[in-house]
């Protein structure tokens, strides 16, 4: 099966992704996927294992602790991430994804991060005997797990709220009704202050380039700690800054969720009232007398 790059982009790219992935990974990964896709023996799980092996090689380089070994480790970590991104694209392109594959990918990603953190910061501690490197090791592992757990729980809560509203909302009668609702929302956006409009413009620009507005997600955190920090040699300040940025953006996500949960009871009551009104109108239409 020969596929074009355009087909790969259409069928495997996520609608929105981390800016690091969009700008520095997808252009390379899509071309590698084009080479690998015809070979059905190369499964997503095999690519996950390959990414893990390359990640272990990166950890081996980090453990050496000299300047150029750290650079080599950073480059290998980026390569391992590219290969790791390929497994999902191959799964979507060839229809070979599975629930077990998702678990397999998650677990081996965490193993790769833990071993690389152990080699990078543990090696620095062995060399310098500075306790701060052990603290950084613990924080990096904790934040890597926290951002996944926080993200999955936020998504779960949002799905539950949406499902409850969808159960109550009556179906739209026509496409024109849906278009009219969208036009009303657009007019409301246009009426917002200039500051909000500029914020929306920035968001629209990022989305048009597939970049999500959550600019410092777990992906950027990993890349900063395991690529930028070793490349610059500023392990402590870069790692601390990365952790602070991740916490700020995670707090922003939690604040957004809090606002949504605070507004949810009113939305639920409105949806219940709309559903009751719709039921009355439907009953009257069937039995006008």
Structure report:
With 289 residues, the protein is mainly α. The protein has one domain: Four Helix Bundle (Hemerythrin (Met), subunit A). The longest helix is centred in the C-terminal third of the chain and has 52 residues.
Give the secondary structure arrangement, pairings included.
Elements: H1 5-12, H2 19-36, H3 44-64, H4 67-94, H5 99-128, H6 132-168, H7 175-190, H8 194-208, H9 218-232, H10 235-286
Helix pairs in contact: 2-4, 3-4, 3-5, 4-9, 5-6, 6-9, 6-10, 9-10
Search tags:
single chain, 289 residues, mainly alpha, Four Helix Bundle (Hemerythrin (Met), subunit A), 10 helices, 83% helix
Please outline what is shown here.
This protein is mainly alpha-helical. The protein contains ten helices and no strands.
- The general outline is globular
Extract low-pLDDT stretches. 173-179, 184-191
**Radius of gyration over all CA atoms, rounded:** 24 Å
The CATH topology turns out to be Four Helix Bundle (Hemerythrin (Met), subunit A)
Number of helices: 10
* Major sheet details: none
- Derived structural class: mainly alpha
At CATH level 2, the architecture is Up-down Bundle
Beta-strand content estimate: under 5%
